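Folding Problem: From Residues to Backbone Shape
Fields: amino acid sequence; protein backbone structure tokens
RECORD BEGINS BELOW THIS LINE
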Amino acid sequence: MASDGVSPKLVGRWSRNVHATTFPSGVWSMAIKRSGAVAFYQPMNSSVDFTTSFKTTDGGKVSVGTVPICPTTAVYRWKVSAARLTITKVSDTCSDRVRLYSGVWKRG
């Protein structure tokens, strides 16, 4: 059954090293709240770069909201194991968001 916000397993701060050409490369962080509010932080910056929303759904999927460079929503698959969050694209037409979101994130 779908719920409001996100699974408690997703709540917290996560980071990963991102290699990009159209936005800053380096270690990006995201802070996910139980409500589904998500704040993203550029490498070596403590100020929020942008916010979006996540909503977990059945089958280990998360619906993600729009971001400044992607005016569409998308769906990803997620899995938490120990202190690692793996995010993989299910459907997303925005290559920059795919590049930022997809991969293994570390808690903390």
The two ends are 29 Å apart (CA to CA). The mean pLDDT is 94. The chain has one domain: 8-107.
